[in-house]
Amino acid sequence: MNTLRLTGVQLRYVNKAFWRNPASAFFTFAFPLMFLVIFTALLGSFKVHLIGRTISSATYYVAAMAAFSVISACYTNIAMYVTFQRDLGVLKRTRGTPLPSGFYLGAKVVHSLLIAVVLVVITAAFGRIFYQADIPTGLSLLRFLIVLAVGAASFSALGLAITGVVPNADAAPAVINATILPLLFLSGIFIPLGKSAPAWIHWIARVFPVQHFASGMQAGFLETSFDWIDVVIVAAWGAAGLLFALRKFSWEPRV
């Protein structure tokens, strides 16, 4: 009970700090919807051929932006937040307080998971209202929730892991975006991958977790073919990220 109470207290603090920065909070929720509208407007209406189903581009981007929402909340935001807190000396000072350091990071991770869930709900509702996208139900909903939980936890672990290689806060935006933006393009988040795409792009997409996570999310949203190997690969990347974070994570600013 003491563990839950401490986590809850710190979680409330993190949540208050999040909403006290309205500009950051607004764009956290606005970015996925902005990208959804921009891509559907710029690229127009076309058919996307997935395994077992052909869908409209608008419906495809609803599922893609839901996946992007989770990655943004759990990977990018955590990595940026922790790096800046580390360089400001907040992490170091936190270790000198009665609050166990694990609870401090744990509360941030839990908050990011909650934000990710809210983002997915908003994206799904937006897609349903404006693009007549399907809402997962039944077995598809259960699979979707499993993929969402595994993906959010894994990308949170990877967000903590990447802080181990970010030298300082000034370099954080460049390093973090450089590790995720290319994969978003190469994994079909921003542009659907067709059979005409070069083989090396498909190979890269299969190695990294982004495409597998997006495929699992699509299976829930669009009722396309669901493959548990996608969940296993995402979870394996999360476990590897957690192990790396345990070895390389730093509580003190780097010189």
Topology:
Blueprint: H1 2-19, H2 22-43, E1 47-50, E2 53-56, H3 57-87, H4 90-94, H5 101-131, H6 138-162, H7 172-186, H8 199-207, H9 209-222, H10 228-248
Antiparallel strand pairs: 1-2
Look at the structure and give the mean pLDDT.
88
| Principal-axes shape call | globular
Q: Give the SSE string.
A: HHEEHHHHHHHH
User: Alpha-carbon distance between the termini?
Assistant: 39 Å
Q: Quickly count the helices.
A: 10
The strand line-up of the biggest sheet is: 1-2
Largest sheet: 2 strands, antiparallel
Computed structural class: mainly alpha
Give an overview in words.
- With 255 residues, the protein is mostly helical.
- It has one domain (2-248).
- 75% of the residues lie in helices and 3% in strands.
- It has ten helices and two strands, in the order H-H-E-E-H-H-H-H-H-H-H-H.
- The protein has a two-stranded antiparallel sheet with strand order 1-2.
Name the features.
two-stranded antiparallel sheet; 2 strands; mainly alpha; single chain; 10 helices; 255 residues
Structure summary:
The chain has helices spanning 2-19, 22-43, 57-87, 90-94, 101-131, 138-162, 172-186, 199-207, 209-222, 228-248, and strands spanning 47-50, 53-56.
